[in-house]
Design goal:
Blueprint: E1 11-14, E2 31-36, H1 38-52, E3 58-63, H2 70-83, E4 87-92, H3 94-107, E5 110-115, E6 127-131, E7 137-142, E8 149-153, H4 154-157, H5 162-185, H6 197-223, H7 228-248, H8 252-260, H9 271-286, H10 290-303, H11 319-329, H12 345-364
Helix pairs in contact: 2-3, 5-6, 5-7, 5-9, 6-7, 8-9, 8-11, 9-10, 9-12, 11-12
Length: 366
C-alpha cells in the first residue's frame, strides 16, 4: 500500500488576512457563492465586501441553516449551478465549512475555506461530516481533494469565545494518539493509504505544541489578544491537526465521539470537547502508563476541556444510551477498528466508565 499525504493547495494565516482575500483568489473565477451564517454575515459581511469592492467579483450570499445535512447540501449545490458560480467560499465554523466543501465537490467547483473559529480540525481536510437534520451523525463524505485555499484570519479568531479555541484543542489533542494507534496496527489513514513520516511528525507536533502553548493561548483568547501563543494554537487546530488526522489516521477517539451523537444530552457539547473525553477513553482502552493519562487530564483541566461526563452536563449517564453509543462506535468500517487490538462495545463501555471515574477523581484532587 502506498503512502499518501493530502493537504490544501494554499494555507494563509495572520491578523486581518481576510482584508487581503482578493490576493489569493487567482484561478477561482469571479462568481463566488458565499455560505455564511446570519450572525457571521453581521460580523464579517462588511469586511469581506470591502476587501472585494472595486474588484471584478460577483458575490452571492447563502445563509447557513444550522446543519450539514444532505438536504442542505443539495439545495446549495442547485443554487450554485443556477447562479453559474465558479467557486464556493465557506465562512464560519465546522459545519458551515463542511457544507461548503461538500457543495464545491458536488458542483465541481473550487473551494475557499475561511474559519472564523479554531474549534475543529476540519478546515483543511478532504472530507465533510454529514449529519441528519436532527443532528445525528450519518456518514463521512470523502472528497477528491482538500480545499483549494484555507484562510485563517487570527484577528477574527481571537475575538471568538475562548471555549471554541479550547474545543479545537480537544480535537487536535486526539490527532497524535489516534495516529499512533494507526501506526501500531498498520491501519490506513483517511486517504486509504499508509501514513507518511511527515504526517506522523505533524500529528506528534500537535500534542507537543498544545502542551507548550495551549494554556497561554486560552488565556490570550479570553482577553481577545492575538498573541504568538494564539497564532501557534490556531495553526495547530486548523492546519497541523487537519493534515495530521487525515494523513495520519483516525482510531477510537473519533469513533466513540460518533457514538455519542445518539445521546441527546450531549448534542449541545462542542465536537472537540467530546473528542477530548473520548481520547481519555481511548487511552484507558490502551492501558497506557499513568503519567500519560495524567498529562492528558492535566492539559484538559488547564484549558477547560471535560474529563468526565458531568463536565459535559451529563450528570446522570444512562447506561442503556452509553451501551448504544458503544455499539454505534463499533459498526463495521468504524475507525475504532484501527486500534491495534480487537475492540468490542463491552470494552468501550467499560473504558467510558473508567475514564469518567478517573476524570472525577483528578478534578476532585485539584
Amino acid at each position: 500500500m502506498s503512502k499518501i499525504l493530502k493537504s490544501p493547495a494554499k494555507y494563509v494565516q495572520g491578523p486581518d488576512a481576510l482584508r487581503t482575500l482578493d490576493q489569493y483568489l487567482q484561478g477561482m473565477g469571479n462568481r463566488l457563492l458565499v455560505i455564511i451564517s446570519p450572525n457571521g454575515m453581521k460580523r464579517m459581511g462588511d469586511t469581506l465586501q470591502s476587501g472585494l469592492d472595486g474588484k471584478p467579483y460577483e458575490l452571492t450570499y447563502e445563509l447557513f441553516q444550522g446543519e450539514c445535512s444532505q438536504r442542505q447540501i443539495d439545495d446549495l449545490t442547485n443554487r450554485a449551478k443556477e447562479k453559474g458560480s465558479t467557486a464556493v467560499i465557506g465562512i464560519g465554523g465546522g459545519k458551515i465549512l463542511d457544507t461548503a466543501k461538500a457543495v464545491a465537490y458536488e458542483a465541481g467547483l473550487r473551494s475557499v475555506i475561511i474559519p472564523t473559529v479554531a474549534s475543529t480540525d476540519s478546515p483543511c481536510s478532504s472530507l465533510s461530516v454529514i449529519y441528519r437534520d436532527n443532528g445525528e451523525f450519518e456518514r463521512y463524505l470523502f472528497l477528491n481533494t482538500c480545499p483549494d485555499m484555507v484562510l485563517a484570519d487570527t484577528s477574527v479568531i481571537a475575538k471568538a469565545p475562548a471555549a471554541l479555541l479550547a474545543a479545537g484543542m480537544g480535537d487536535a489533542m486526539a490527532t497524535w494518539f489516534e495516529a499512533r494507534a494507526c501506526g501500531a496496527s498498520g491501519s490506513p489513514n483517511q486517504t486509504g493509504g499508509q501514513p507518511t513520516r511527515a504526517a506522523a511528525g505533524l500529528a506528534a507536533m500537535c500534542w507537543e505544541l498544545l502542551q507548550e502553548d495551549g494554556p497561554q493561548a486560552k488565556k490570550d483568547a479570553e482577553a481577545g489578544v492575538c498573541s504568538e501563543a494564539l497564532e501557534t494554537i490556531v495553526e495547530v487546530n486548523t492546519y497541523l491537526s487537519s493534515v495530521g488526522f487525515e494523513s495520519g489516521g483516525l482510531a477510537a477517539a473519533h469513533a466513540i465521539q460518533k457514538g455519542f451523537t445518539i445521546i441527546p444530552q450531549l448534542h449541545c457539547q462542542y465536537h472537540g470537547c467530546k473528542v477530548a473525553f473520548c481520547t481519555l477513553t481511548q487511552l484507558v482502552m490502551e492501558a497506557v502508563p499513568k503519567q500519560e493519562v495524567d498529562a492528558v487530564l492535566r492539559f484538559c483541566c488547564d484549558v477547560g476541556l471535560p474529563v468526565c461526563f458531568s463536565d459535559m452536563g451529563y450528570y446522570e449517564p444512562d447506561p442503556a444510551l452509553l451501551c448504544l453509543a458503544a455499539e454505534k462506535a463499533c459498526v463495521p468500517g468504524s475507525t475504532v477498528h484501527h486500534m491495534p487490538f480487537p475492540v468490542t462495545p463491552e470494552l468501550i463501555y467499560g473504558a467510558m466508565l473508567e475514564a469518567d471515574a478517573l476524570g472525577k477523581k483528578y478534578r476532585q484532587n485539584l
